Amino acid sequence: MKKYIPVLKRTRLFTGVGNDEITSMLSCLDARHKSYKKGEYVLRQGEHLSDITVLVEGNLHIQNDDYWGSRSILGEISVGEMFGEAYVAYDSGALLNDVVAVEDSTVIFFDVKRILTTCSSACRFHAMVVQNLFFAISEKNRKLVQKLGHMSKRTTREKLISYLSEQAKKQNSANFTIPFNRQQLADFLSVDRSAMSNELCKMRDEGLLKFEKNMFRLL
Question: In which band, very low, low, confident or very high, does the pLDDT at 50 lie, cut at 50, 70 and 90?
Fold first, then answer.
């Protein structure tokens, strides 16, 4: 577990907390880690969650498959990001989506009751972690609003322009890499892959952008 301390220190949840303090808080917060192979489910739709979870290795997708097998990718989870917090509140209900490892990954689970309740040893950084949890949830809500902004566009081109513009701003460069392959991007934007690929080619031919695999350059 100690090898993940540097990763945890960079997370939103432990902002402002030192390495030694994080180490001492791991047992206080009942931290457990589990590894998953590519393609394995970390969380499944219908499960109930009582832990705050943080990805410390790999990459995960939040996805939903309908009855006929059509898939929508609702979000990507990168190293250092927290997930599942929307389902740990009392009476929040079962998970509505799956969380799947898209490469070999490791997740740390923290008991949410231990986070929200002051421990007997009264860790002096405990209150800071609770504050960080609030800000992390606010940040996740902001990302959800961004995704809704992409999805609200009427055409495939408008969705692509919205998403690619947001990625360029996020990475502060006209040259950037996205975390999705073509099928995953189509699933994320809820568009047909062939139609999306055709639109990308049209945008390239019109001089709007260049791309190679998941690397893009906006012109």
Answer: confident
